[in-house]
Specification:
Elements: H1 3-10, E1 16-18, E2 26-28, H2 31-40, H3 48-60, E3 70-74, E4 79-85, E5 93-98, E6 110-121, E7 124-133, E8 140-148, E9 151-160, E10 174-179, H4 195-208, E11 212-215, E12 219-220, E13 236-240, H5 262-270, H6 276-295, H7 301-330, H8 351-359, H9 361-387, E14 393-398, E15 402-403, H10 407-411, E16 420-424, E17 434-439, H11 443-448, H12 452-462, E18 467-470, E19 478-483, E20 490-493, H13 496-510, E21 513-516, H14 526-532, E22 536-540, E23 563-566, H15 575-580, H16 582-589, H17 596-620, H18 643-652, E24 658-661, H19 663-666, H20 694-697, H21 701-711
Parallel strand pairs: 3-9, 10-11, 10-24, 11-14, 14-18, 18-21, 21-22, 22-23, 23-24
Antiparallel strand pairs: 1-2, 4-7, 5-8, 6-7, 8-9, 12-13, 15-17, 16-17, 16-19, 19-20
Length: about 725
């Protein structure tokens, strides 16, 4: 094996992989890319000598630290290793564990195993010892103090359960919705869905018998570029997007504030698309007034709550707020994001940044106020969910990565790949592959930080949720990384066992069920590993077909029993759009389908797909009794009345524990929410509103009939 390939494999960089396209392809990774990836992971590889030296460094790595930063283990099999000079093997050993959350057994019993594994580093002979804790430990995180003679060694022990948290309600067949919060339309919001809309939708859903509401990622986006509206391109996966604040629910809001902008707000409310560039600044201006009023009454209970919130969130919130303030200062002065700022501001720990934070405390604390109020309003929704007795409640969405020009990357740049971002190779749904340009953790850097960044992101998104969707869950095992200036990419592997166990541990600590979005290039055996850990998969109608998507639709009884199921996703055309093939024409007009011949081929396949769908609905006997199928609808002419009801009843009949309906399907929407591979200059991604206001939804005949169709099976 070439040395560069050997180094790459030792670092968990794929030298060969296959995609999941219609015609599966194999790829050999170029030497140029392997060198790039190795060097971004901290190992020189430009010359044969550097490669050889780096291989040796990787081999020595474990022998050059006594304990790793963290050991992630499963309950009932708690073990870790220690590297010490060979002379220490005969010393006395003492083990002390402490935990904020778990009781520690007394006395602590353990075994020390010496497998005679030695290594000479320099002039010192080292031995690798294995420690097995035989005392029964509760799940949780433990600070470990291991004493060998007079020496003390410290690490963290994460004791994970064998399975993710199991909500007993998921033993039954539940249903609910998958919505985009921003798209909710109401007679009272300011042109974009907000937390009050979410609360009202919770009430409506609970009355309809729904037990779960899936929502898009709610994380904070760019303050200075509100048009960068993708919820999957956040600047922090810890905190919330202030655009979802209902300004009129802020305690400091005064009704007369609205008079000046009443006509504008009504225009935003009536517009077909969400006008982020106008709505966000107006909301911020109102929130600034509320903030000023809060500061005028520092003796109030509300201000004390704000101070307590800032203290509780500590350095994490401080970094976000300072980043936002600095970004606002430099957004019109330099081009290129935070990497183009003056050097002294490119790291959060510099003296210049600390001085700036003191000087700009008013503005920095304003950004903290936005999070304080957003968190308060979301918590009110969470309480409403509990009061409504929804069995699952909010089902939140954790994005696979974070924007490169983000507070997360600015705060800890060494954790992320530089000059490269996450994406995906071709698959059945995205034949050209995808370049997401998302910041991605470096595997070894993540472990060296005891997985702290990953843990805090999980906690932030689980804390208000009954279930969490992990976007592109394959990233727990591997992530496709594409350099910014190369046309090729490759997979980088993470410590899959550690990542799975941390997800399971946080799931149980937060009582949050876990769902893995696994559409794309799924490794062999991967879904089995998720199932063993009680991680639910995601299933969509369009993917549940035979012959790699060309054959019959599977009947409901053939669907997986450990999956959350829906008709489609926000990245797929709604049912009515799909039927008429409007998505095909759109892709052709935008150049995503390269020529007329390929477009015609897509139309031929869609005609075949329609026949297969009609056949499946007929066999399942799901057409509404008062609206049976009346024709064959050749070449997509006309639209089968009752189609949505039939499809929803069809999917509701499956044995999947949760069925998630989409309002776009129910309400006959003919336009796609997000078209992957495009930006807003080509397609209004993340900007479409549902066509019916929340106030009228309960009386909408399509809504009523589709809910009846679903509840007839659930």
């Amino acid at each position: 094996m070439d040395n560069i390939k050997l180094l790459a494999e030792k670092l968990g960089i794929s030298t060969h992989f296959s995609d999941a396209g219609k015609n599966r392809k194999e790829y050999d990774v170029s030497e140029k890319l392997l060198v790039f990836m190795a060097e971004k992971m901290g190992y020189k590889a430009s010359t044969p000598e550097e490669i050889e030296s780096s291989i040796e460094a990787v081999d020595k790595r474990r022998w050059q630290q006594s304990l790793e930063k963290i050991y992630v283990v499963e309950q009932g099999d708690v073990r870790f290793d220690l590297v010490v000079p060979a002379d220490y093997a005969s010393e006395d050993f003492a083990l002390n564990l402490t935990s904020k959350y778990c009781t520690v057994p007394e006395p602590m019993s353990f075994e020390v195993i010496n497998d005679e594994e030695y290594r000479l580093i320099g002039k010192t002979k080292y031995v690798r010892l294995k420690f097995v804790i035989t005392s029964e430990l509760e799940i949780g995180y433990y600070d470990v103090d291991l004493q060998v003679g007079f020496k003390h060694y410290k690490t963290t022990l994460a004791v994970a359960p064998k399975h993710c948290w199991q909500n007993e309600a998921l033993k039954h067949r539940l249903w609910g919705y998958a919505i985009q919060l921003y798209s909710l339309k109401s007679d009272r919001n300011w042109g974009v869905g907000d937390f009050t809309d979410l609360a009202n939708f919770v009430k409506l859903s609970a009355q309809s018998g729904a037990d779960i509401i899936g929502i898009n990622p709610l994380n904070v986006l760019s303050h200075d570029y509100p048009e960068n509206a993708s919820p999957y391109q956040s600047i922090s996966r810890i905190y919330l997007n202030p655009i979802y604040i209902d300004v009129e629910k802020v305690p400091e809001y005064q009704a007369q504030d609205k008079e000046e902008y009443a006509e504008d707000i009504e225009e935003f409310r009536q517009s077909e698309l969400i006008q982020y560039e106008h709505i966000y600044p107006i909301k911020i201006s109102f929130l600034q007034k509320c903030y000023d009023r809060l500061l005028q009454n520092k003796s109030s209970e509300r201000y004390k709550e704000f101070e307590n919130y800032m203290a509780k969130e500590g350095a994490e919130l401080e970094r976000l707020a300072v980043f936002q303030s600095l970004y606002h200062k430099y957004t019109n002065q330099v081009w290129g994001g935070w990497r183009a700022w003056p050097e002294e501001y490119q790291t959060p720990n510099s003296l210049a940044v600390k001085e700036y934070a003191k000087e700009q405390q008013y503005e920095v604390n304003f950004f903290k106020f936005l999070q304080f109020e957003a968190n308060r309003q979301l918590e009110e929704v969470v309480q409403l969910v509990k009061d409504s007795k929804m069995k699952i409640g909010l089902y939140r969405d954790l994005a696979v990565g974070v924007g490169q020009d983000s507070a997360e990357v600015w705060s800890e740049p060494d954790l992320f790949f530089k000059e490269a971002g996450a994406g995906a190779p071709p698959d059945a749904f995205f034949p050209a592959g995808q370049r997401w340009n998302l910041g991605a953790f470096k595997p070894q850097a993540l472990k060296e930080d005891a997985y702290r960044p990953f843990i805090k992101i999980l906690r932030a998104n689980m804390s208000s949720a009954g279930a969490l969707r992990i976007d592109h869950v394959m990233s727990l095992m591997r992530l496709f990384i594409l350099p910014e200036k190369m046309d090729e990419g490759t997979y980088v592997y993470y410590n899959f066992k550690d990542m799975l166990n941390i997800v399971a541990l946080e799931s149980c600590l937060n009582k949050c069920a876990i769902v893995g979005e696994s559409i794309g290039n799924v490794p062999d055996g991967f879904l089995d590993s998720l199932a063993e850990k009680n991680i639910y998969s995601l299933s969509v109608l369009w993917a549940e077909r035979y012959d790699c998507g060309w054959g019959d639709f599977k009947q409901p009884q053939a669907y997986p029993e450990n999956a959350f199921v829906s008709v489609g996703t926000h990245d797929m055309p709604p049912l009515r759009m799909w039927w008429f093939g409007y998505d095909i024409e759109l892709s052709y007009q935008l150049g995503l389908i390269e020529n007329e011949h390929l477009r015609n081929e897509e139309y031929k396949k869609r005609e075949n797909d329609r026949w297969h769908l009609l056949k499946a609905l007929d066999e399942a006997k799901v057409w509404p009794a008062d609206n049976l199928r009346k024709a064959d609808y050749i070449y997509g002419e006309n639209y089968p009345e009752g189609m949505e009801e039939a499809v929803h009843k069809f999917v509701a009949k499956t044995n999947c524990p949760v069925f998630l309906a989409q309002l776009e399907d129910i309400l006959h929407v003919e336009k796609q929410q997000n078209l992957p591979g495009t930006d807003r200059d080509l397609h209004p991604n993340w900007r479409r509103k549902i066509p019916v206001t929340l106030e009228k939804l309960a009386q909408d005949i399509a809504y009523i009939r589709n809910v009846d169709a679903i509840t007839s099976e659930r």
